[in-house]
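Holo model, fe (ii) ion. Inputs:
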Amino acid sequence: MLDFGPKCRFSGPEWFFSYLARQIALYMLKLQMQTDPMWVKHVVSGNIEEILTDHAYCELKAASTANSLIVQYPQHPELVEQMSDLSQEEMGHFRMVHREIQKRGFALGRERKDSYVNELAKFLKKKGKSVEETLCDKLLFAAMIEARSCERFKVLSEEIDDEGLATFYHKLMISEARHYTMFIKLARKLCPTVDVDGRWEAFLAYEGEVITRYGKSERIHG
Ligand SMILES: [Fe+2]
Ligand SMILES: [Fe+2]
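Output:
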């Protein structure tokens, strides 16, 4: 279980809302491995340009995922509505990250390979799945990426040696926690013939093993 404990760089009302967000995140996220804070100190802090570029593309890909779910599942109005909102919000995040890049005198670099996401995709069954099982896997895949992003943003918000970015990542941590919940709820609602919670537990165990090979590079999931 992740520790969203009392460590916090905010005070006054900000501290209260930060504490509340951490408690919600603690309750919601069930990731099995926590990122070592040394990842920020020893890897990220020395290359802010790299982490921001990688992050910008994560937001862009999140918007693309939302768009492609609309194209693939237009028969589900609730999914179409929620993915429309999500796509807009993720593009807003992309713009925010791009502004942080520009503010620091950098330019957006090329897209980085996301090996973590490629490894996660191997968990998804390729053949012999029902329509609902396929949809469920796609929603849980998106939920997992949101959950890990949320956890990484939490560590960044606590450890990064840049007050502006600490506040920035704290806000994004809350958004990603909300997105994670939305995908899990959609899976439960739209895939009633699938054991969504059982599949999620198995996926969490798989992700817990995958993530042990990461936390060594200046990427959001690296
Ligand atoms: Fe986002
Ligand atoms: Fe998100």
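The domain at 43-116+125-212 is CATH 1.20.1260.10 (Ferritin). Residues 59, 62, 90, 93, 175-176 surround fe (ii) ion (ligand 1) (CB under 6 Å).
Archived with the compound record.
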